[in-house]
Amino acid sequence: MQPDVEIHPALLKDCHDIGRLRMSRLLLMDEAAWPWLVLVPMRPNKVDWDDLDPMDSYRVCDEIRECSLALKRLYSPIKVNVAALGNQVPQLHIHVIARFEKDPAWPRPVWGVTEKRRYEPHALQQRIAEIERELHSSLGFADRKG
């Protein structure tokens, strides 16, 4: 397991840190309109995908794939979007977002299309529990950040 790397404050402001995967911290975007995960590889000073060494890149790809499959199993989206933009947050992080034909932004990208709708406490805990259960066996979900 990799040591923790400090997560950029902007990510912590917009997300809930829900746990550690084998290579990344798993965050849940505080946006109730979409099941939206963010993976932050636990390597210091990484900005772009190609900053990772080949083996780390492979490990993160595996986590992205398992997170995508978990969102499909849990929520049956029509599409799962994967993006690593980093235009506003320089730390390498990867968005994995379940999309639906009737979601508030469809078919446009999710960024800046609607007013942010934060999770209510009960819905947040339910979403986190679903994701933890689904990823437990496939990704070796290790801990929950309290």
Structure description:
With 146 residues, the chain is an alpha+beta fold. Helix content is 32%, strand content 20%. The protein has three helices and five strands. Helix 2 crosses helix 3. GO terms for molecular function: hydrolase activity. This is Diadenosine tetraphosphate (Ap4A) hydrolase.
Biggest sheet: strands, sense, closure?
5 strands, antiparallel
Looking at CATH, the homologous superfamily is HIT-like
CATH class: Alpha Beta
Low-confidence stretches: none
Q: What is the rounded Rg? A: 14 Å
* Oligomer type: single chain
Order of helices and strands: HEEEHEEH
Please state the average pLDDT score. Answer: 91
Spatial strand order of the main sheet: 1-2-3-5-4
Q: What is the total number of structural domains?
A: 1
Helix content: 25-40%
Keywords: Hydrolase
GO molecular function, one term: hydrolase activity
Organism: Tistlia consotensis USBA 355
Pfam families: HIT
Short description, anyone?
This is Diadenosine tetraphosphate (Ap4A) hydrolase. With 146 residues, this protein is α+β, with helices and mostly antiparallel strands.
SSE topology:
Blueprint: H1 9-14, E1 15-20, E2 24-29, E3 36-41, H2 54-75, E4 79-83, E5 94-99, H3 121-139
Antiparallel strand pairs: 1-2, 2-3, 3-5, 4-5
Helix pairs in contact: 2-3
